[in-house]
Amino acid sequence: MKRVGKVAALAGLVALLATGCSGDEVLRFGWPVGVTEQAAKMRWLWTWSVIAALVVGVIVWGLIFWSSAFHRRKKNADPTALPRQFQYNVPLELFCVVLPLVMVCVLFFFTATTESQVLDKKPNPDVTVDVVAFQWNWEFDYPAEAKDANGQMIKTIGSSSEIPLLVVPVGKTIQYNLRSTDVIHSFWVPEFNFKRDVFPYPEKNNQDSSFQNTIDRPGSFVGRCAELCGTYHSMMNFEVRALPADEYARYIQLRTQVNPATGLPNTAAEALAALNCGELCTPHAVTTEPFNTDRTAR
Ligand SMILES: [Cu+2]
């Protein structure tokens, strides 16, 4: 027994060290890293669900091991004799029905409360972005921000030289209003740990087409269309740039100003370049490419 214990401890240690996981990664149990407060809540649900599953698992594995190791048929036992029977044992059967029910209810309770926290909407979000999806591009409108030099709403649309850039502030409540102008698309930023279909007529489909989140760190994150929407679906990418709140305010200000080189209001990439905030503001993405409009290129 002592040797078995030593070997098991050694195997556990090798498994822990050889995988190279940090403490944080171990507790994440494979859950992807999220960058929003909502993602953190979902992660806690996942972590505790796995811990609960492991506790149940260890008890079940223990019972299997215990009964197969210590309740083998004795050497000289009567081969026709049955082991002790437990059918029609009312307390035991009640226990076997009630306990799983309690477990399901606890899991359901935490799933439902986490879901309602993730989908919760504050009445006055700090920033509102209207997300318009169409074959095969994205448009991001800022209806609540200042108008540009031409008196128009600030809009970002992807072009063949500029990926659609969704610029948002860190630490603020952002509301995304989703709408498609043609087929069903899906707004997905893997780092948000969140995805939602974009419908042409959300109200006709009884769909809640808006959601809110709060990004907790600056960074650039790839966004994708996650609903097969036609030939160039795979190119329907965008990029989220989460800027510190003061940089975001400067970004919006730059969007309202005219670029002397073009005589037009600054585009998203031009405004980011003018911000000069290092890698975060590099006008072109490293992980996504602008949509190539040349249909003979591939
Ligand atoms: Cu799409």
UniProtKB/TrEMBL annotation:
The keyword Transport applies. The keyword Transcription regulation does not apply. The chain crosses the membrane at residues 47-69, 90-112. It is found in: Membrane. One of its GO terms (molecular function) is copper ion binding. Pfam families: COX2. It catalyses: 4 Fe(II)-[cytochrome c] + O2 + 8 H(+)(in) = 4 Fe(III)-[cytochrome c] + 2 H2O + 4 H(+)(out). GO terms for cellular component: membrane. This is cytochrome-c oxidase. It comes from Amycolatopsis taiwanensis.
